[in-house]
Amino acid sequence: MSIQDHYEAARKELLDLGLRNSLLNYRHSSARGVRVQGESSVEIFNLLVREEKEMTFIPRKGLEVDLSPHQTNARRRIEDLPKWPASDGLADTELAAHLQEVGNSLGKVLHAVMSLPPRVQEAIDRAVTSDNEAAGRLLLDEVELAIHQAEVVRNRIDRGREILKKPLAPAKVRVLSDSLKREVEILAGEHLERVEDASAGGALRKEWLKPLSEEELRDTRLQTNDTDRRLQRRLLNTERSARTYIEERGVNVLYLALGMLHWRDAEDPKRELKAPLLLVPVKLQRAAVRERYKLSYTGDHIEENLSLAFKLKQDFAAELPPFPEFEDLDPKTYFEAVRKAVSGLQNWEVEDDEIYLGFFSFTKLMMYRDLDCACWPAEQQPTEHPLLKSVLADGFNEAGSAYEDETLLDDHLSPEESHQVVDADGSQLTAILDVKDGRNMVIQGPPGTGKSQTITNLVAQALGQGKRVLFVAEKMAALEVVKRRMDMVGLGDACLEIHSHNANKKGMVDELKRTLGQGRVIEQAGAASDMELLANIRSKLNEYAQAVNEPLANTGYSAYEIFGELIHQQRQLKEVADQPRLQSMVDSLRDVDTILKCTRAQLEERTVAVGRLEKHLETHGKPVEHPYHGAGITMLMPSDRERLLDELPKTMETVRALIAAVGALRDRLGFGNQSNWSDAQRLARMASLAEEAPDLRGANLRSRNWEEEIPALDGLLKTGGEYSALKAEHDETLLPEAWGRDVLVPRSALVEHGEKWYKFIIGDYRRARTEIRALCQAGKAPDDPTELLKLTDVIMSEARLKKEIEEKQSVAEEPFGQQWRGVDSDWDKLGKVRGFVERVRSAVKAGEVDDALINYLETVPDTLPLPGLVKAMEDAHSALLGQLGRLFELLKMEETQRQAWQEDWGFEAQVSRLEQMISSAERIDEQVIYNQMVETLEDAELAWVVEGAEEWEAASKHLVHWFRNNWFERMLHELLESREPLRRFNQTAHSQDILRFRELDQLLFLFNRIRLAARHWEGLPSMVGNGQLGILMREFEKRVRHLPIRKLITKAGRAMQAIKPVFMMSPMSIASFLPPGSVHFDLVIFDEASQVKPVDALGAILRGKQLVVVGDSKQMPPTRFFDSIGGGEELDDEDNRLADLESILGTMTGQRAPQRMLRWHYRSRHESLIAVSNQEFYDGNLVIFPNFNPADPSLGIKYHYLPDTVYERGATSSNPLEARAVAEAVFRHARECPELTLGVAAFSVKQMQAVYDEVERMRMEDNSCEEFFGAHEHEPFFVKNLENVQGDERDVIFISVGYGRDQDGKVSMNFGPLNSDGGERRLNVLITRARRRCEVFTNLRALDIDMNRTSARGVGVFRAYLQYAETGTLEGETDSKHSAISTLFEEEVVEFLRQSGYEVQMKVGTAGFFIDLAVFNANQPGAYLLGIECDGPEYNRARTSRDRDRLRQQVLEGLGWQVYRLWSVEWFAHPAAEQARLLAAIEAAQRGEQLGQPDRPAEEADQLREKRLEEMQGIRREATSAKLTGSISQPAYEKAKFKINTGKKDLVEMPVDKRVEWVTRIVQAESPVHRDVAYARYLDLADRRTGSNNSRSFEEALLAAKTGQSPTVWASGEFLFDNAELRPEVRDRRRLKSEERKLEWVADEEIDASILMAVEQSYGIEAEDISIAATRLMGFDRTLEPMRVRIDARVKSLLTAGQLTELEGQIQIPEGGEHGE
């Protein structure tokens, strides 16, 4: 389907020209409305309307009996008889079929009539006069005659059917048909009419209906045909129905119909129908319950019968006469005009004085006409409207929201950008931000979640953005709540209520004038600095909450959790001593990545692994004590087990063999240890040394000189070596006697003369030469003097060395003993002894060998066997190593263990270990398991935990605690390093910040209220007397004859929007009062949108740019229930079955509109009041705040079981005794707690009426509680049914079920509307109306409702609700803790409190929100003493700082809680002080003291802020306003003011650039300026006269200014501009001389600007007024004809260009145009 098809299909839903429409076929109701008889329409009109007098009703005399319901039933059954077929050509079978239908219907007629006699007899018995009794007897006779006649007719019908069982001739069929038809008509037209006549007065009518005198006709008493009791009941029902319709639809449908047109429908010309002609809107009121009702004119527009006019035109080609204006309206004249208009229609008559008080609704037809495309401007066709396309056809394709569910909203809305005027929680703020961003959307608002609060903020936000808003709601209460809120925040002046029943034209004009007359808003100083401070504090609070709750890197753990973990672990380790502090742990945890990359799941896996190890230690002991400790085997196959059992004995054998070999070596040496392989190696080394020893005989190995004289010995051995080498070298040259000779003298001679060439003649030389040569062996003496000299040196060296040896021989004699022989010693042997002794003594000193080895060497032992023994030992050791290698390989022995086994363990230890392993071979599995655990831990880089577990005695009990404590300490260190808010946290300062934030956050609302009020005032128009503003000005001056509202909006709608940018209307009032195209809105908001049909919403949608629907798809859908009131029909729950319709909310959802859900539930002061609804409809997603005293009997659901009451099915369809119980409860409430508001809601209309009647009866009997029934202006006492209770809330709600066990004890599964589709939505509304208490009255128990007999979800939810009311438990309810998991930190606080003697509950709440901890009140069972809120996940879950640090606590305190804030940082850092502070708070609460606020210095700034806060509670204004008297003035035309100085030169002689500068300055000062004016100014400033040279100098300069590289002047025709865009400024020329004020010297662009400005300022103006307004703006005192012509031409040009548009005879700025808004 095209958009056009969708649109027209929707429109057709509104067209109601059927005979159910009371405006076309008025049928007087049996229970509501009043027929006025014997009165004059003209006189009533004059008294009621012209003279505005109140009128009363007077009853007739007669029998006090009300048969109207039963008579109406009988009459309807007659009317329901099938239409009798034409006799001609009627076949017998057709007649038989028809008679069967007639017979069935007559049975129903007879049943209805037969119910009359008992009631008549009751009335006769109560009769107190003979007249009454006579009337009763007559009525009884008529009833019995009617019964007899009905039986006769039915029998005739049955006889006719018997006849027709055989074929019958057509003629006989016709005769039979005509005969039976007459019988039926006689029954309907005679006998039942006589019954009605008798019940309406009968025999007394002649006396009662005598003609009224002139005086009686002119009095204010209206004659009726009802007895007093019946009349009062009718008036009561009428007033209640009229009030209900106003509340639900915002429209008054109660009219006094003056004059009736009796007409015939073309399809059934024999049926007479009645249509009202003149409809006077009226209201019924009474001063008190015992007072009579009075009728008065509402002052609204008197209506013609639009439906009748439409029907006449459509079906009969006739038209009603034009309806006169109010001042010209004369009923008699109008009736005559109607009579004349229908005179050509047969049997159509006008009854001037037929008068009814009844219900008539025009709204559907008016909405139908409003949606007619022909009524809308061509450029605003409905089918082209973007929103309408989205709603009806294309769907919504909105961009994604910038605000995710977890988004911190404070980051997206600074205080300066916020325009909220009341509190908004996070879910509300998200919706507000989405709307602020321009999204079309659905806001789902479950019961009590602050829809009106959100709408108030939406409207305020829109006002802050300069938008025009249309707020739409059908229910009067919804509109009034928002209006009341707007009034409370000081923005009510921006709102205009045009709700149909409140739409009073004079009142509206007065309100507009009052608003314009208000003074300027006095804004507050210091707001900017306060908002900056608020932003800073808010940022700090958010940073802290984020810092304490944001997980550290990938760990998944927040500071809050780390604190809790550490507190817990440290408590567990408090008494544990000697906790390991391993270097490996420090090294491992030093690696930041080890910590930061470990996720929560990984850490938990590691903890589990550590826990398994701890459990293993507890079961199997320390690892080091295990027989297989060190074995790294992680899997043992059966074959491995067998090998192990084989290898262990072999290993034992090799160990024992090694022990034996070591023992043999030791025995041979006679000294040394043999306990381990190190000892064996030592023995081997000593044996090797002994074997390597030189000849040591005679040497003293223990001489002290081996230590003390080592240098001397070494020097001596060196000298001896040199001495020995010297002699050995020269023994072949020198004689033995040469050694020791003194050769100093010969040497001197050789030295002195050896170089002389004549040395041979020198005696000393010769003697010396001879002496030295004599000391040489034969043939060995040298001749060369140099060689001889060397020999002397050798002889002298030998003497020196010998002397040194002799001097030191005492050092060597003791250590070398017999081996010392002075200079003749064997110096090589002595050197070897010296070296060996040093090796031995060093080895002894180093501990490598035993000291006993020295003794052994001194004995000169036999070392021959030693090598063999050493080899045997080494072979045994090699065998052991091989065997151990096999064993170790099998066991995967750790390298450290291998090394220890091989190098450190003693042989006995090895033997012992092997014996343990052999004897405990089965325990190898324990080691395998242990190794697997170790492997897991090492893979997780937790080798240090294994190391700690190896030796720590307490590891079997505290290994996990030790591990987690060290791990989280490292995490905390890293976290504090990276998060400054935690490092710098100070509780006192933080608490001060929160206090200051709360003050400033509330101050923000006050600032916004003042700011928005000031913005509204600034946007008010200044009255200039033209256009739409001129129309308003004239209306302000009138006392009477104000324009009707629709006409006023047509002529001045935009101006009204400038004064009142927020219109508050119902869908029906939009159609009634907003002509298509007259006004437009930037934002359209629907409230209670689940009850608005899409077609009803179209009119509002067409007038907006952005659409927001607020409602709840789980609450009441649209219904036809109230159509019965407007149509004058009886209310019936059964008629509403399956009548639920699609809503605009459902349509928007189905068309993919974005959705937001309000989640915070504020209404219920006890969780039970919303629990069922939250579970059944909202999946537990509501945020519900717990009450501090759940056991308070004045709160919650109360169940009243009334087993003695009976549901009268089929009779009254109500439970009268239950109704009486409810009424009695109402009076108890009125007496005991009148300060609490109260409402009663029934499941059905009949039960509602029963309760209402009982309350009314008791009020009549006892007026002691009347003060209560008149109290609570905004929330008065009500009795409603579940169809019309949506939108209402009261402190206490009584629910009267009505349905239940009948007199036979049976329970039908029929619960009226609950059984229909959507019935559960009605129930959801009903059970969520109470704030404090809801009391259920019924004769049912939950078990009485058998869900096997019905599948209706509404019944199922009702059963669950009943069960909850009875037992306090919900079916399928789970432990709330699944939604709120306590943290370790909170558990530690609880542990402390319990140890301190207090009973504490964790996570108090039911859904969405939980108080972390609550301390029970020992003196008040079931109540809590103190709520403790920590700064953990629940604290951080808030999406705004307002939610977290103010709003949640505010709500809790409103519910009676005392809230204590506990900061985890402080609790961890200073536990003793914080524990003491908490206990002090609990003790204070026990004493009944309120928790004090943190101490604050009484700073001057704080005092000033508090004073300003007090001052700002109201919006202050200046005493007078300039808006009503001032006009908008334009800037004055300013001439160029400078001097052109040319010296003695002519202008043409001046440089061009200089002249360009002058021309440019002239244009800049006067742009746009005519070139002639510019030239004249040029000459004037230069003090020159006109001339060709001067003209040339100007033209040259102008050309250069226009065409230069950087132009400074631009031209358009003859006008010069200082900007390329040719933007003009409208200037006031009043200060110019008269000869300078010429319109031809004004540029078209400036004229256009003045026209647009005039139109904009007037918000729409008639074409002929534009020239005057525009010329006034430009400063012209008079508007001459040439001016008018030129301006009119420019207007046409602007219209052609689309810059102006014409609507309803006015020139306007197009919606959204450049000059719009």
Salient structural properties:
single chain, alpha/beta, 1717 residues, elongated, 64 helices, 51% helix
Helix content: 40-55%
Number of strands: 31
C-alpha geometry? elongated
**Proportion of residues in β-strands:** 5-15%
Radius of gyration using CA atoms only: 58 Å
Number of helices: 64
Mean pLDDT: 86
Terminal Cα separation, in Å?
Answer: 36 Å
Poorly predicted runs of 5 or more residues: 202-210, 1134-1139, 1494-1501
Notes on the structure:
There is one protein chain. With 1717 residues, the chain is of the alpha/beta class. Helix 21 (583-590) runs antiparallel to helix 37 (943-951), helix 23 runs antiparallel to helix 36 (924-939) and helix 48 (1216-1232) packs across helix 49 (1245-1261). The relative contact order is 0.08.
Entry summary:
This protein is α/β, with parallel strands linked by helices and 1717 residues long.
Topology:
Elements: H1 3-12, E1 34-36, H2 41-50, E2 55-58, H3 68-79, H4 92-114, H5 116-126, H6 130-163, H7 170-199, H8 205-208, H9 214-217, E3 221-223, H10 228-249, E4 254-265, E5 268-285, E6 294-297, E7 303-304, H11 306-315, H12 331-341, E8 349-359, H13 363-370, H14 386-394, H15 426-436, E9 441-444, H16 451-464, E10 469-472, H17 476-488, E11 495-497, H18 505-516, H19 527-549, H20 559-572, H21 583-590, H22 592-596, H23 600-620, H24 638-669, H25 677-692, H26 705-708, H27 710-730, H28 744-753, H29 763-774, H30 785-816, H31 827-846, H32 852-858, H33 866-891, H34 895-904, H35 907-919, H36 924-939, H37 943-951, H38 955-978, H39 980-983, H40 987-1019, H41 1027-1037, H42 1045-1059, E12 1062-1065, H43 1067-1073, E13 1081-1086, H44 1094-1101, E14 1104-1111, H45 1123-1126, H46 1144-1150, E15 1155-1157, E16 1160-1161, H47 1168-1177, E17 1183-1184, E18 1196-1201, H48 1216-1232, E19 1238-1242, H49 1245-1261, H50 1266-1269, E20 1278-1281, E21 1290-1296, H51 1319-1326, E22 1330-1338, H52 1353-1367, H53 1384-1395, E23 1400-1404, E24 1411-1416, E25 1424-1429, H54 1433-1436, H55 1441-1454, ...
Parallel strand pairs: 2-3, 9-14, 9-15, 10-12, 10-13, 11-12, 13-14, 16-17, 18-22, 19-20, 19-21, 21-22, 25-26
Antiparallel strand pairs: 1-8, 2-6, 4-5, 4-8, 5-6, 5-7, 23-24, 24-25, 27-29, 28-29, 30-31
Helix pairs in contact: 3-4, 3-7, 4-6, 5-6, 6-7, 13-43, 15-16, 16-17, 18-41, 19-40, 20-38, 20-53, 21-37, 23-36, 23-38, 24-25, 24-33, 24-35, 25-33, 27-30, 27-31, 28-29, 28-30, 36-37, 37-38, 41-42, 43-44, 48-49, 51-52, 59-61, 62-63, 62-64, 63-64
